[in-house]
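Exercise 3.2. Students should predict the tertiary structure of the chain below and write it as structure tokens, then compare their answer with the key that follows.

Predict this chain's 3D structure.
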Amino acid sequence: MYTTGEKPGKGNYKCLKCGQVITLDDETDTLPPCPRCGGTKWDKVN
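Answer key:
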């Protein structure tokens, strides 16, 4: 599990609260709050 503000690397991340998926395109990208629900906990998905 990852939290908003972390830099977990490139990939797709799913909000644990609502299921919204976002994509980080760069190793230096920071996880934002969920754009749909404002959630702050993320799981990496393939």
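Discussion points: Residues 2-45 form one domain. The CA atoms of residues 3 and 41 lie 5 Å apart.
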